[in-house]
Amino acid sequence: MLRAMEPGIYVLRLGHRRERDKRITTHVMLTARAFGAKGVFYSGDRDEKIEEKLRDVVERWGGPFEVKYEPDWLGFLKKWKKSGGFICHLTMYGLHVDNCIDKVPRDRPVLVVVGSEKVPRIVYELADLNVAIGHQPHSEVAALAVFLDRYFRGEELRREFERAKIKVLPCERGKKVIRL
Ligand code: SAM
Fold it and tell me: Is 113 helix (H, G, I), strand (E, B) or coil?
């Protein structure tokens, strides 16, 4: 179970469509984990295969990182705000990331919302901050990666994952993996 009210970054992926979005939602989740988020919520179609895939990655490559399906995304956003959480919505229509990243708190739980197709207007209104990763359309995976990298100032790429069973040993050529 996600301990959602602890400070840290969580991600909400809106509107998952089981067939159409299976790769991109998986990539949103893998990116969230690899770039320092503590967990991910998703709405739309429930997809147990994606949940299993992520749990398998956490089991082998370490955590902590959790995935939770959230059927009522609107109620969830309202509850998040009411209990003191901060909401950051990634949209190309928002403020340039470099002009507002300092407003994202470090002592409160932060929910980073990414869409799939058209994002309802209420999300823009409930968000404490609408953040653009440039003002051109691209992808939720790219937007999330850049946002997290700016927020953590690159330190997330050196993080050690807890209870990992395997780990990459950096090398100039080829592949080196150690079992722990
Ligand atoms: N057409 C949709 C809309 O107008 O809401 C957006 C579709 S886009 C493929 C999916 C998601 O990627 C968006 O909801 C947003 O979270 C993210 N995204 C795409 N480009 C972005 C940008 N330049 N800045 C921030 N987020 C972006």
Answer: strand
In words, the CATH class of domain 8-179 is: alpha beta
Write out the two tokens for 121: 């207007």
Cα 162 to ligand 1 centre (Å): 32
List, for the chain, all residue ranges whose pLDDT scores fall below the cut of 50: none
Pocket test residue of 73, 90, 123 for ligand 1, highest count of atoms within 8 A of CB: 90
Q: Is the pTM of this model over 0.90?
A: yes
Confidence (pLDDT) at 4: 54
| pLDDT tens string 72-113 | 999 999 999 999 999 999 999 999 999 999 999 999 999 999
Instruction: Determine the distance separating the centroid of ligand 1 and the alpha carbon of 140, expressed in angstroms.
Output: 6
Residue 22's Cβ-count burial label (10 Å; 0-12, 13-18, 19+) is middle
User: Which residue has the CA at smallest separation from atom 3 of ligand 1?
Assistant: 118
**Looking at ligand 1, which atom is closest to the CA of residue 119?**
5
111-123 tens-digit pLDDT: 999 999 899 999 9
Ligand 1 pocket at CB < 6 A: 90-92, 114-119, 132-134, 136-140, 143
CA 100 vs CA 47, 82, 104, 134, 156: distances in Å = 34, 22, 7, 12, 20
